[in-house]
Give the backbone structure.
Amino acid sequence: MNKTIFQIGLLAFCVSTVVFGTQGMNLMETIARSFVVFIITVCAIAVVLIISSTFALKKEESVAAGGAAPAAGGSDTGSARRAPQAAAQSAK
């Protein structure tokens, strides 16, 4: 995962170097701005991955604790499964 983040940051660095270079900036300014783009890109991707893994971990913990995670639509499909069971038990 770290290698992928670094490679995406390196791609952003190279693209920004070309873009800044075509704007007629001197070499040091181009490299400095491209480095800033690299750092911002790597940090942004890292933050997004940390947040998504945190949400995934919280979801796994809630499922493991016995709380059913809601379906994609937000509705609780467990009540639909419990209804026939309740009807069968009341018929006994």
